[in-house]
Amino acid sequence: MCNQPREALGVYQELLAENFAPNSTTYNALISAYGKLGQLDKVLEVYKDMVWKGLERSVITYSSLISACEKAGRWETALQLFDEMTRDGCSPNTVTYNSLITACGQGCQWEKAQAVFEQMPATGCTPDVVTYTSLISAYERGGQWHLALQAFQRMLAQGCRPDAIVYNAIIDALWQTGVVWAQATALELYHSAVKQGHFRAPRVNGPGDGSGTGSPTANSPAAFAPGGPGGPSGPGGPGAGAPLGGAGGGRGELNLHALTAGVAMISLYLWLCDLRDVVTARGDGALPAALAIVTDAGSNSKEQGNFIIKEAVSTMMAFWGAPFKPSQDRSYLGLLEASGPAVAQWVRTDAFSAQLASLFPASAAPPLGAADAAAVLAHEQAARGQCDEAFAAVARFEASHSLQLGSMAGAYLGQRTGLVSSMLEAGAALGLKDEVVHDGVLLLDRTLSSVQQAPAELLPLVAGAALRLSAVQGEGAAGAPPTAAVAAAAGLDATSLGVMEGNVARLLGGDATAISAMRCLKVYLERMGYRFLDRRGIYAVAGLPIMLAVEAAFDMSLLNCRPSAVAAAVLYAERRQRGAVPFWPTMLAKMTGYEDLVTPELAVAVHAAQKLCRKVLYTQIYKAQATGLAAGARGGGAVSGPAAQVAPVAVAAAQPQQQLLLATARQAAAVALQQAPLGHQWVPIAPAPASAPLQQFQALAPLQRQVSVAAVPACAPAPAPVAADDGPLLFESLALSLSSLGLGGGDLSAAALGAALQ
């Protein structure tokens, strides 16, 4: 009755009615029965009774107790019982360790799971496939994919053969990071799983090779169920793809139901690649009459579907205008269908190649070698250390500086859109890095958040001063354009601008620090490894979020949100819009501490970012440019651009722009810590004070007097405000930001961006 806990409890009650005295074996069975029913309180009650009666507790007793804690999600209790077990002189076995590691992993305690694993050799216990599966899952939950990969390599070295469950765990852990080299490694492991028979490679059968619609191994739901006739049993294996029906009729089907996100996305990518290859090699007639992608089998399967995959695949196909459309077949909850001829025409287009790059940008990374885990981990160690340090600087800045929309004067808010436009245009004319210009916008907001009011006629000078101070902060005094050059680019008087610089600096207490959402976004993209891609891959990952970050600089609803939160929201929203899984990579969640995006501040930022994503203009530009890059790469295949120049273990040396980015963030944090008032927090979505301190208002007053006394020419009139709903599209600024990705200005010029709309 080991699998019938309720019946076991009934038998126990009958024994008690007959005055049967339970022994250790009886109690062990009782603990196991209550544990399987999820009644941990009853389990512990039985255990206490067992201790009180002085009955012997064996490894079976403690293994059952720890297993019950695992099922109840009580990792602390599991560890306490393990300690009691060792004090009782009871030696654990591999089953005990497996349950304990699983309990720690489910509680997101990867360090404790690792510590338990490392105790096993001392007790003579050998890890098995269940041990490694639990350990890898614990690392994945803790955002430690590099340790998960090391555990997998250790498993292979031990001679322990991974099964489909292990492959699912490690592939999903790597994929969910969103990191280029981790996802490339996931693809290599997928191929290994296929070779070992755990997964079936998605493929299309050509004329004479297919089995037609009547073949259970090709098209029926049974072919994709665990243990079905088409392949080995186990999660992920059969569902990872099956041969399509042969030419001349029938329906070919890819079933992604119940797969982990990593396995599902790789399966989809390889299936689409195979569609293209078959059409290229054999012609349009090689495809079945109809093709389908199952994302949720509904009542056809006992396993729950993956709702993220269901949304992502549907969104992706709609975003790129693919022929796969939602089906009216009500027997499935998630089904996309297309005709064979329509798919054959689609896979020949450059838009299809652009979609592949968007789905799996890691395919554009330089090959690291299937077994070269050391190179992968070297990439990861360098990027993790540098980006963690950079984000720590971001966090210190945000903890020591404040910005609130409600404290800004109405005159400034009325002109802000025009002022931001002029700063971006001037920055483009000066050739400043886009993150420096965006830092200047934040510095402008900081300045105007520090005073009660500011004369409207002086606001363009304040904007010019913020741009100049930001350039000095970001580029250094020697590298920043002189005041006269900034004045010329912004249409301001140089003398007036020089006076304004000094007054703004004094108003801010000499602290011109600013770390904008654009700079934070660049750190996120660096962490994901976008510089290791070729031109198509870089644009696929970074093109749309960079454009949206430019637009976000104008959105005043985001002024109450921290720059790091705005950058996170922009990246999440655009990835979700494209159907790029994961929507919010686990490595960024770990680095930022934004484990989910539902806190009030992040929810506001995400809502605003999703509104930006709905502006068709940016998606049009993104898709047009991505398609153009795909057309330019047609016929090549070799890795080119920044990716080709990166040495596996010399990441820092190959990325001078990243070094400058990180150094600037570190410098900004140092200034923030030295000069900003302690305890001055960035408070999101909070009411602004009734008025700014009088001394802050007076700090700006000399600014106006000095300009008047000097009798300098009046500054250029303020640009007319642009309607907030429309938002300006500044092709020059977009071109500057996109060129900062290292793609070169040729294809991403203002003229080219404008032409994308024709």
UniProtKB/TrEMBL annotation:
<dbReference type="Pfam" id="PF13812">
    <property type="entry name" value="PPR_3"/>
</dbReference>
<feature type="region of interest" description="Disordered">
    <location>
        <begin position="201"/>
        <end position="245"/>
    </location>
</feature>
<feature type="repeat" description="PPR">
    <location>
        <begin position="128"/>
        <end position="162"/>
    </location>
</feature>
<protein>
    <submittedName>
        <fullName>Pentatricopeptide repeat-containing protein</fullName>
    </submittedName>
</protein>
<dbReference type="Pfam" id="PF01535">
    <property type="entry name" value="PPR"/>
</dbReference>
<feature type="repeat" description="PPR">
    <location>
        <begin position="93"/>
        <end position="127"/>
    </location>
</feature>
<feature type="compositionally biased region" description="Gly residues">
    <location>
        <begin position="227"/>
        <end position="245"/>
    </location>
</feature>
<dbReference type="Pfam" id="PF13041">
    <property type="entry name" value="PPR_2"/>
</dbReference>
<keyword id="KW-0677">Repeat</keyword>
<comment type="similarity">
    <text>Belongs to the PPR family. P subfamily.</text>
</comment>
<feature type="repeat" description="PPR">
    <location>
        <begin position="58"/>
        <end position="92"/>
    </location>
</feature>
<dbReference type="InterPro" id="IPR011990">
    <property type="entry name" value="TPR-like_helical_dom_sf"/>
</dbReference>
<dbReference type="InterPro" id="IPR002885">
    <property type="entry name" value="PPR_rpt"/>
</dbReference>
<feature type="compositionally biased region" description="Low complexity">
    <location>
        <begin position="214"/>
        <end position="226"/>
    </location>
</feature>
<feature type="repeat" description="PPR">
    <location>
        <begin position="23"/>
        <end position="57"/>
    </location>
</feature>
